[in-house]
């Protein structure tokens, strides 16, 4: 290999390496974590108050035009297996196998402050909108289900049995909020186990409850100090939880305060910041290809490269 | 025979659209992605990286010797990527809306690695066929007068002029989207097992597609020698294999160093499915490196072929693991592909092979005018 060749090689390698390296070094300034908008709204659900009456499940169906899910009960009564293509809200019962410990748990979208699903969606079918509500617009949804892959709480569900399936998830009843009404679930709860409000107010209220009876509430794991789930988890959520059993038992994952999309998007932005690296790489590649092709045509005695292109 | 297989599988193509995803697949809300994504797209496009790998060698590392490999490699790439794009239409729930993506630039989400993959792959399919177009135009311009002949004669010089920039685009796009296929899984966060979840995923995906790309070229050349009775290109493939050894070694080294730096090597101490798969991948990646270590071993056509097969297996297992096995949505969910899913995948592969055979038969792919070894033999 001649000296010139070696230089060409090195140039190519260096350019490729530069792109890879931006990914490796994870610049700290690559991505700014999103914060909740000042008018962010949400829910606060407190397991100590919930009696498992499921009135909110029925109300959610009515508010969102979803038929009862009777598949498990042989067509007799509403019995959703979990959140699914026709269920945006369920009450689950957690029972400890070895102790009398039990708790209800309300599952619905948490309306993350910095949502992974919104970061995932190719064309903004999922968006964080007014009051920080994460909404869904089927006009753009191709049904790729990437949002399902990335939601740390397994919230978005898919209408698997339909031929034109959509994503189904709680949108905080934003159609009702616009009319000045409450979400379906909070309006009917007889025990105010789930309440609607501004996130800042809900957070203050949750902390007040913990301060009032610190013994009653639990943290992430057994023995952890009590906390409000959603204050910081995964970058924070607008729907908050208080619980008398450790959150991990309710299926709420132990997430750091880093927004869920942080690492992936830092890498992505690191590589594609202002499209500088790809454009630079393209220019280098183009120049190198141009020169090498000319050289090869010359050395193989084919002036002008009659075979054309990528022979 | 192949056509029969394809016809049988085509029944399941129809079934998928008649019955919907729920009935035809084993996919569920926990495992929304199955083999149509993990195999047809993620493994399939890596197998379609032969064109990328060879172009990198020929045009960037300036090894003109490999020139005869360019066209066959480009053809497998063009077919591989085209099939992956077709497979996407089976997988997404609302395929007719995929076309809204290019139409609404204002809605493009540059945060989404998947968006970048989609856009790059769409463009790359076009670039690949354009890169390959001289092969078709050569044939047509020698054919009977008519539309094809006229167009070919007009278009050929234009394509030739644009070729360096097409080739460069053909190098840039796979670099971008093959690494982004790694970033795609990075966003699944904790759901991806820590042995796989690393910010280096883009790099690992890029390296693994290069390895698989090279292996496919070896595989394909050996196969066409066997089936079509072409002269074996063993010496050329042997030196090509020399490139694979460091690629494989780097891949494995990077993974272990990364796990070590992030204090995750201890995970290998627990014996479970994940450790098992991780070790299997490691063995599969290192085995071909050892098989190809000596010059003598590389020059043995049989050995070379076997090593390439293991290499393809290694990359495929790695990618399937990262997209399905190491993805853990919670114990309530399970996934194993349904019969219809397997048949659709088989059908897509069968179609690809059929098209390959047909195109190779009628167009100057394997016997391109430039296919005689160039006068100068570049020695690394
Ligand atoms: S809980 Fe899931 S679906 Fe809801 S906003 Fe967060 S990431 Fe999106
Ligand atoms: S399934 Fe629809 S909403 Fe979810 S990421 Fe894909 S396009 Fe977006
Ligand atoms: S806010 Fe509305 S959609 Fe969400 S759980 Fe409550 S009732 Fe259902």
How would you characterize the overall build of this protein?
The complex is a heterodimer of chains A (311) and B (380). Chain A has 311 residues and is an alpha+beta fold. Chain A has helices at 3-25, 55-63, 116-120, 146-150, 174-178, 184-188, 199-212, 262-272, 276-299; strands at 41-46, 90-95, 102-107, 126-128, 134-136, 157-158, 167-168, 194-198, 240-242. In chain A, the strands form 4 sheets. Chain A has a 3-stranded mixed sheet with strand order 8-1-9. In chain A, helix 1 runs antiparallel to helix 8 (262-272) and helix 1 (3-25) packs antiparallel against helix 9. The two termini of chain A are 23 Å apart. The model of chain A is unreliable at 1-29 and 301-311 (pLDDT under 50). Chain B is an all-alpha fold and 380 residues long. Chain B is built from 13 helices and no strands. Mean pLDDT of chain B is 89; it is low at 368-380. At the A-B interface, helix 1, helix 3, helix 4, strand 6 and helix 8 of A face helix 1, helix 3, helix 4, helix 6 and helix 7 of B. The complex binds iron/sulfur cluster (3 copies). Residues 59-60, 63-64, 88-89, 108, 170, 172-173, 183-185 of chain A line the site of one iron/sulfur cluster. One iron/sulfur cluster binds at residues 120-122, 125-126, 141-147, 167 of chain A.
């Amino acid at each position: 290999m001649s000296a010139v060749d070696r230089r060409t090689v090195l140039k190519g390698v260096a350019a490729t390496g530069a792109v890879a390296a931006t990914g490796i070094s994870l610049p700290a300034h690559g991505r700014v974590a999103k914060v909740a908008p000042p008018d962010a709204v949400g829910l606060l659900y407190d397991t100590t108050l919930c009696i498992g009456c499921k009135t909110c499940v029925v109300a959610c169906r009515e508010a969102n035009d979803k038929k009862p899910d009777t598949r498990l009960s042989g067509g007799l009564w509403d019995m959703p297996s979990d959140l699914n293509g026709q269920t945006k809200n369920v009450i689950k019962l957690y029972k400890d196998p070895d102790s009398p410990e039990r708790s209800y748990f309300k599952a619905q979208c948490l309306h993350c402050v910095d949502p992974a699903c919104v970061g995932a969606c190719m064309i903004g079918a999922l968006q964080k909108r007014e009051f920080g509500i994460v909404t869904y617009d089927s006009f753009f949804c191709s049904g790729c289900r990437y949002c399902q892959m990335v939601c740390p709480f397994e919230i978005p569900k898919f209408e698997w049995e339909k031929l034109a399936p959509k994503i189904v998830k709680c949108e905080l009843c934003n159609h009702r909020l616009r009319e000045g009404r409450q979400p379906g679930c909070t309006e009917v709860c007889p025990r105010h186990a789930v309440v609607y409000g501004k996130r800042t107010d809900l957070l203050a209220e949750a902390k007040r409850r913990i301060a009032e009876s610190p013994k009653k509430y639990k943290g992430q794991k057994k023995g952890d100090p009590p906390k409000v789930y959603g204050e910081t988890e995964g970058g924070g959520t607008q729907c908050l939880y208080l619980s008398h059993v450790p959150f991990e038992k309710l299926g709420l994952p132990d997430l750091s305060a880093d927004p869920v999309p942080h690492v992936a998007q830092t890498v992505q932005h690191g590589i594609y910041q202002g499209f500088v690296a790809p454009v630079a790489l393209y220019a280098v590649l183009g120049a190198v290809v141009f020169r090498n092709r000319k050289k090869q045509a010359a050395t193989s005695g084919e002036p002008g490269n009659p075979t054309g292109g990528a022979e | 025979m192949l056509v029969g297989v394809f016809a049988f599988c085509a029944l399941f193509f129809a079934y998928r659209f008649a019955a919907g995803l729920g009935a035809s697949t084993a996919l569920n809300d926990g495992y929304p992605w199955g083999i149509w994504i993990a195999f047809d797209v993620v493994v399939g496009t890596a197998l379609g990286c032969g064109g990328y790998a060879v172009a990198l060698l020929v045009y960037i590392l300036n090894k003109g010797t490999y020139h005869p490999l360019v066209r066959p490699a480009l053809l497998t790439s063009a077919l591989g990527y085209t099939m992956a794009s077709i497979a996407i239409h089976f997988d997404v729930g609302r395929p007719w809306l995929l076309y809204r993506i290019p139409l609404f630039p204002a809605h493009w989400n540059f945060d989404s690695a998947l968006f970048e993959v989609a856009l790059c792959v769409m463009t790359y399919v076009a670039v690949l066929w354009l890169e390959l177009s001289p092969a078709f135009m050569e044939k047509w311009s020698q054919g009977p007068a008519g539309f094809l002949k006229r167009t070919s004669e007009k278009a050929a010089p234009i394509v030739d002029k644009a070729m360096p920039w097409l080739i460069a685009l053909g190098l840039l796009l796979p670099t971008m989207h093959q690494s982004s296929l790694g970033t795609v899984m990075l966003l699944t966060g904790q759901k991806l097992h820590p042995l796989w979840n690393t910010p280096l995923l883009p790099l690992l995906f890029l390296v693994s597609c290069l390895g698989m790309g090279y292996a496919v070229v070896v595989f394909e050349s050996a196969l066409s020698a066997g089936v079509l009775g072409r002269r074996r290109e063993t010496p050329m493939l042997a030196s090509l294999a020399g490139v694979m050894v460091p690629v494989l070694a780097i891949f494995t080294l990077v993974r272990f160093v990364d796990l070590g730096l992030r204090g995750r090597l201890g995970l290998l101490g627990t014996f479970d499915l994940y450790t098992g798969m991780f070790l299997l991948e490691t063995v599969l990646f290192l085995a071909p490196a050892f098989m190809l270590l000596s010059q003598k071993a590389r020059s043995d056509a049989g050995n070379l072929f076997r090593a390439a097969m293991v290499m393809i297996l290694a990359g495929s297992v790695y990618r399937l693991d990262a997209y399905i096995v190491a993805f853990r949505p919670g114990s309530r969910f399970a996934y194993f592909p349904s019969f219809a899913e397997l048949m659709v995948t088989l059908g897509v592969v069968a179609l690809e092979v059929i098209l390959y055979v047909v195109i190779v038969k009628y167009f100057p792919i394997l016997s391109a005018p430039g296919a005689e070894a160039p006068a100068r033999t570049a020695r690394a």
